[in-house]
Design goal:
The chain has 369 residues and is mostly beta strands. Helices cover 12% and strands 41% of the residues. The strands form 8 sheets. A 4-stranded antiparallel β-sheet has the order 3-2-1-28, with no helix packed on it. Strands 4-5-6-7 form a 4-stranded antiparallel β-sheet, with no helix packed on it. Strand 1 and strand 2 form a beta hairpin. Helix 1 packs across helix 3 and helix 2 packs antiparallel against helix 3.
Length: 369
C-alpha cells in the first residue's frame, strides 16, 4: 500500500511526524525523501505541534552546535563548518528552524541565517544604513515569512570626525528580501540599545521589546503599529543578579535572579503592573544564580556550561496555564565521545528539515534599488 500512495497524501502523513521520525522516514528512499521535503511537511513542523529543541552554541567555537532533542531527551552534535568565523549568534527565528548570526570585529553588521539541521546558510542583504553593534529584533509572521528590526548602533565614521550613534530603525521583510528605513528614534534609546542590549528581543501584543543590562535593568519597547518608543521599569531592576525577557501565554514576562538564591518570574498584566507568578526554591536558585536564561513561547531554560545541566520551565501537556520545572542533564558525551565542558549561548528553535524559506539570492545591487 505504501508504494501506491500518491505523493501529496504521503507528504500529509509525514507532516504529523515529529522531526526525528521525519528525518528517519526521509532516509528510507528517494521518493520518501522528496515527500518529506515538501512545503506541507515543513509548514506542519513550523506549527509548533511539538516542543522546541534547545540549541547550545559554544562561545569559543563557532563551528560546533550541540542540540538537545526534547522529544527523545538525547543530545546530538552538529557541525557548522559553513558558518564564517567572524560571526556570532544573535537569536533564532524559531518557527522556521533558523539561527540568526551577525558579523563581529568592528565592521558594519551583516546578518545571516542558518538552518543547523540541513546546513543551509544564507547571507541577508546589506542594511540601508551601515552600523555596528545595533539591537536586533525578530518577528515571525507565519511559516513562510519573518521580519527583522535593527535599532541604534554606531554609524560609520565621517571623513571629518568620529563615529556617532545611529538614531534610526530599519526593518527586513523576508517576502521582499529588502531592508527599509522606517523612522527615527530617540538618541538616548539608540545609545542604550547599542551599549547595553546583549540579549535577544521579545515580541508581544504588537510591541517589540529589548532588555537593557545597565544597572538598573530596564526595558525598551517599540510599538510596531504607531512607530512609538517607550521605556518600562523592571521589578527589582537595581538588585537582580540577571534578568531576561520572555513571553508566557502571549504576555510579557521577566525572569530574574534575586539576591539570596531565588529565581523569580514576573508577568506584566493588562494594567501595566508586574505580578510575581513563580518563585524557584532557594536550593535550585543557588545552583543557577549566575546562570543565563533563554525563552520561547511555552518554554524557558536556565543554563550555564554545556555539561552543567539545565532547568526547564515549560507548559504542562494537560494545561497551557500550568507550568512545571524539569531538570535536564548536561551534555558530557555524544556518540560515546567525551565532551569538554565549555560556556555556551543557549537558544530555542523548532527543527525544520526544509532547505530554505524562499529567500531570493542576495546581491548588493538589490539593496540599493
Amino acid at each position: 500500500m505504501w508504494n501506491n500512495l500518491p505523493s501529496d497524501l504521503l507528504a500529509n502523513i509525514f507532516s504529523y511526524l515529529p522531526p526525528p521520525s521525519l528525518a528517519r522516514a526521509m532516509a528510507a528512499c528517494r521518493h520518501w525523501h522528496d515527500c518529506g521535503r515538501t512545503s506541507a511537511a515543513g509548514y506542519k513542523i513550523c506549527g509548533h505541534q511539538y516542543p522546541p529543541w534547545f540549541i547550545a552554541l559554544p562561545t569559543r567555537n563557532n563551528n560546533l552546535c550541540f542540540v538537545h532533542n526534547s522529544i527523545e531527551n538525547t543530545w546530538h552534535l552538529l557541525n557548522l563548518d559553513h558558518v564564517p568565523s567572524l560571526t556570532r549568534p544573535v537569536s533564532t527565528i524559531a518557527g522556521h528552524g533558523l539561527i540568526l548570526f551577525k558579523s563581529v570585529g568592528g565592521v558594519p553588521i551583516r546578518l545571516t541565517v542558518c538552518n543547523p539541521f540541513t546546513g543551509w546558510f544564507h547571507p541577508l542583504p546589506l542594511l540601508r544604513k551601515p552600523r555596528t553593534n545595533p539591537a536586533v529584533g525578530v518577528i515571525e509572521g507565519g511559516p513562510d515569512r519573518f521580519q527583522l528590526y535593527v535599532a541604534g548602533g554606531m554609524s560609520e565614521a565621517a571623513s571629518s570626525g568620529a563615529a556617532s550613534y545611529e538614531p534610526t530603525l530599519e526593518t527586513f521583510d523576508s517576502k521582499s528580501n529588502k531592508w527599509t528605513v522606517i523612522g527615527s528614534m530617540p538618541v538616548e534609546f539608540a545609545v542604550r540599545l547599542t551599549v547595553w542590549t546583549p540579549n535577544e528581543s521579545v515580541y508581544s501584543n504588537g510591541v517589540l521589546y529589548w532588555m537593557t543590562s545597565a544597572r538598573a535593568y530596564s526595558i525598551m519597547g517599540f510599538e510596531i503599529g504607531s512607530n512609538k518608543w517607550a521605556e518600562l521599569s523592571v521589578p527589582m531592576g537595581d538588585t537582580l543578579e540577571f534578568a531576561t525577557l520572555i513571553t508566557r501565554v502571549g504576555k510579557l514576562a521577566v525572569i530574574g535572579g534575586v539576591h539570596g538564591g531565588y529565581v523569580v518570574v514576573w508577568e506584566r498584566g493588562d494594567d501595566g503592573e508586574w505580578v510575581m507568578i513563580e518563585k524557584i526554591a532557594c536550593e535550585l536558585g543557588n545552583r543557577f544564580m549566575s546562570s543565563k536564561c533563554v525563552g520561547i513561547e511555552g518554554c524557558v531554560c536556565l543554563y550555564k556550561e554545556i555539561g552543567s545541566g539545565m532547568m526547564v520551565w515549560r507548559s504542562d501537556e494537560d494545561s497551557e496555564d500550568k507550568w512545571v520545572w524539569n531538570s535536564i542533564e548536561g551534555c558530557n558525551r555524544v556518540s560515546g565521545k567525551r565532551i569538554e565542558n565549555c560556556p555556551i549561548k543557549g537558544l530555542f528553535l523548532h527543527p525544520n528539515l526544509t532547505f530554505s524559506i524562499g529567500l531570493k539570492a542576495t546581491t548588493e545591487i538589490e539593496n540599493k534599488d
